[in-house]
Amino acid sequence: MHYDGIIRIQSSINVNYLQSMSKSMDYIKMQSRVNELKKVVNNTINAMMPICTPSYMESFSNAVALFQNSIIKNYAQNSIDAYENLKYFLSDCMAGIQKTISYGSSVSVLHKAYEKSLFLRIADEIGFPIYLEIDSELKDRLITSYRENGGQCNKKEMREIILDYYNDDYIGWILNGIKNVHVFDTERIVLIEEGIETYQLGLYGSSASLFATQLSGMIKDVYEELSTFYRLSNKEKQELLISYNQNCTPDSEKGMLLQIVNSQPQGFMIWNKAVRHFLNIIYATKENNIAVQPNRNLICHGKQTNYNTKEMNLKLILCMDIIAELAWRVKNMKEEYSGSSFNI
């Protein structure tokens, strides 16, 4: 399989966003955003009333309730997360409703938005960072499994589905994406390629060790590419760290990753999930999840020793794939910025 450089998450890039975001971090202030959310909710309900049956409205309410409960469960400490996730879910619904008056089309739009939110919740529950698959066959297979098991995650079954989905061809496709974006250090690519070969030979201890050490370098490479055209002030960097409750410096791996994700104009719901996985699992300071999750710091310091499995390796490869996706997006943003008429 050949990687063709197609960006998977919200492919269009709004360059004007870079100009506005470089000037202010006011979006962190909650009250104005809460008012905006109320407006979105009211507009959505008003638009749906004339074209929807009572049973459909009930289904919509249940979908929103399910989504809200998922947000509260996962992000109780951070109201910004809850606001952003629900806002973009409802915005998707509203956009579809505004484009069509037909009942069937509106149902289809809502159904797709609901399935995406369900898929992200499933990904969190089973502990695989598969957020980039939100529009893929894997999403469909996992949701089918979820429904066939009475609305519950059969983790063993879903694990097998995921391991089957990410076969050698797909892993090779991920590697091609890392190689062809031309953002990562060439010597680093050689190491990652060797790690993939080792993984495919089943030598999981060696490959996972290599992947864990290279994750931070990959983040640094993308950050340096981003810094050639997009920068936040020191104050904005600190505010961004505070908004995610991170006690680290802006030039740390977590600080750089937050700035990379913050630069993305679209797909916030997905990127927020991805960055939370890095902050709370891959770079976590506690050892709570190491029975089932790889921890970059603990692996590199020799404290975690159970990472020599295919599952642990795949989770690290998926994290590299997320960084590669961000690299493609940053590269595209740079090209768009280079062709724009303004300077940031």
Q: What is the total domain count?
A: 2
The topology string of helices and strands comes to HHHHHHHHHHHHHHH
Ends distance = 38 Å
- Spans of at least 5 consecutive residues with low confidence: 10-31, 71-77
Anisotropy-based shape: globular
Number of helices: 15
Number of DSSP strand runs: 0
Proportion of helical residues: 55-70%
Percent strand equals: under 5%
Radius of gyration: 20 Å
Structural class: mainly alpha
Mean of residue pLDDT? 80
Biggest β-sheet strands, sense, barrel? none
Structure description:
It is a single chain. Mean pLDDT is 80; it is low at 10-31 and 71-77. The chain contains 15 helices and no strands. It folds into 2 domains: 24-131, no CATH class; 166-344. It has helices at 15-23, 30-48, 54-75, 79-99, 103-126, 137-148, 155-165, 168-180, 186-200, 204-226, 234-243, 253-262, 268-282, 296-300, 310-338.
Write a short abstract of this structure:
The protein is an all-alpha fold.
Features:
2 domains; 344 residues; globular; 15 helices; mainly alpha
Write the layout of secondary structure elements.
Elements: H1 15-23, H2 30-48, H3 54-75, H4 79-99, H5 103-126, H6 137-148, H7 155-165, H8 168-180, H9 186-200, H10 204-226, H11 234-243, H12 253-262, H13 268-282, H14 296-300, H15 310-338
